[in-house]
Design the sequence.
């Protein structure tokens, strides 16, 4: 039996990438909104943002509590921040995210948020907003964002969201233990 190998070259990738014209502006080729960070984990949303920029994202906005957002600014001037007036994400700041959700072409929710009850409530509210008003917006839930969804699994039904759980988060999401062989 012959095994087929396929190699991808730079030329193959360039064929599928849209041409960037000199007169284009930041955001013309995508706007990623990252909702993350909190009083304990300031680096997580910055790492996600830097990875997104390195992989080709055009414009990255990190929506984070104010102190976290300032820390993100000090890590990289390429990351734009939306400074939320809170110590940790809470439902009262969701209205400030709505205009960014409208303009975003992709969203990441969760890195470094923490798990205070207000933060988990805010993530659930964001998930509801995405499901009701932006059901086709490419969305990834990670880390603490997944922990919030574990309490309201019904929000996941029918949504094309990407979930990136580690084994412990996966157990929370499915609501039961998994075989040791999978652990």
Sequence:
């Amino acid at each position: 039996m012959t095994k087929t190998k396929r190699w991808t070259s730079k030329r193959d990738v360039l064929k599928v990438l849209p041409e960037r014209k000199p007169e284009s502006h930041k955001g013309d080729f995508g706007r990623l909104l990252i909702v993350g960070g909190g009083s304990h984990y300031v680096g997580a949303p910055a790492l996600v943002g830097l990875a997104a920029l390195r992989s080709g994202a055009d414009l990255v906005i990190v929506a984070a509590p104010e102190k976290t957002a300032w820390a993100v600014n000090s890590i990289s001037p390429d990351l734009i921040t939306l400074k939320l007036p809170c110590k940790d994400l809470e439902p009262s700041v969701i209205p400030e995210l709505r205009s960014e959700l409208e303009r975003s072409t992709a969203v990441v929710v969760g890195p470094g948020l923490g798990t205070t009850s207000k933060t988990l409530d805010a993530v659930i509210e964001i998930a509801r907003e995405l499901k009701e008003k932006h059901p086709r917006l490419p969305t990834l839930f990670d880390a603490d964002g997944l922990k919030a969804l574990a309490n309201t699994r019904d929000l996941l039904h029918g949504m094309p969201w990407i979930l990136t759980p580690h084994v412990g988060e996966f157990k929370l999401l499915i609501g039961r233990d998994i075989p040791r062989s999978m652990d």
